[in-house]
Design a protein that fits this description.
alpha/beta; disordered N terminus; 7 strands; single chain
Length: 299
């Protein structure tokens, strides 16, 4: 990691899309262009292979190819924190080791589940990823809307005591839960807002930034919001937040990856369609998205 970087993850980490061609290969040129655009806008890090990156629809080879392409494009200028997700602890550990070898700056840890997993199994899964990360910072990612096994507050407390598990992105949409995490574990683990939360509110209660797909398409606006919140200028933060929330509302209504890929296509990035069996946005939804982007100067 570059010595010029502020220690610790903070700020705006866009969840990157996975730009794939018809054969399933990474569109490297598109990834480079997108990463250059985001770094030029001032983002603080990059998170490939989150929900926006369609990790659930990619093979392990594709996931590693996306991570490597992002790391190459970033060229060490900002930290790259790729997602690792599996139903199997052994597979998650293997993925983590591959990401470390590829040059990742941290790991975004996700638990997939077919059968429900009890608290002991959940804690063991994330602990194994942290051990495989070889000291790199680990971000816990929990999204109860899509996962059968959630991270309970006692499990988060337990995991916050693992030295390199230092962050959590909770996409529950329950802001009170974030405050509970901060009240109980805030001296050991830091919280990032998700697109399901209002970032200004999360920053107000002690969050350190925003890890979310919308930042891919509105990076300047997202950074301005973060900087206002960090400065404690809550009036300005909310003035910026109100029009931005329209983007989140559209993402909640339509498929997340399809929305962000459509928005990037509108902005000139040929990222391709969402991975089948997902479908692209129809003309009506694209029109709504174009209108919302235009209203905030993002198109």
């Amino acid at each position: 990691m570059s010595a010029s970087r502020e220690p610790g993850f903070h700020g705006v980490f866009p969840y990157l899309v996975s730009p794939l061609d018809a054969s399933g290969g990474v569109r490297e040129g598109v990834m480079v262009a997108l990463v250059e655009r985001l770094i030029a806008a001032g983002v603080h890090g990059l998170a490939p292979l989150g929900s926006t990156g369609e990790f659930a629809y990619l093979s392990n080879d594709q996931r590693l190819a996306v991570a490597r392409a992002t790391i190459r494009a970033a060229k060490g200028r900002v930290p790259v924190v790729p997602g690792v997700a599996s139903t199997s602890t052994a597979d998650a550990v293997a993925q983590t080791r591959a990401m470390v070898a590829a040059g990742a700056d941290g790991i975004l840890a996700i638990l997939d589940a077919y059968f429900p997993v009890g608290e002991a199994g959940v804690a063991a899964y994330f602990t194994a990823i942290a051990e495989a990360a070889e000291g790199l910072p680990v971000v816990l990612y929990t999204n109860p809307n899509f996962q059968r096994s959630d991270l309970t507050l006692p499990v988060i407390d337990r995991l916050s005591r693992v030295p390199n598990i230092r962050y959590i992105k909770d996409a529950s949409s329950n802001t009170g839960r974030l405050l509970s995490i901060l009240n109980r574990c805030g001296d050991r683990i830091e919280v990032f807002a998700a697109s399901a939360h209002i970032p200004a509110c999360v920053m107000m209660i002690g969050g350190v930034g925003w890890m979310a797909g919308p930042a891919c398409i509105v990076p300047e606006q997202s950074i301005a919001l973060y900087e206002a919140a960090r400065a404690g200028d809550w009036e300005r933060a909310m003035d910026l937040q109100r029009p931005l929330w329209r983007i989140n509302e559209l993402f909640a209504r339509y498929s997340l990856a399809a929305c962000i890929k459509a928005a990037l296509e509108l902005q000139g990035f040929e990222v391709g369609d969402p991975v089948a069996p997902q479908t692209p946005l129809d003309a009506v939804a694209r029109g709504e998205l174009a209108q919302a982007l235009g209203a905030i100067g993002a198109l």
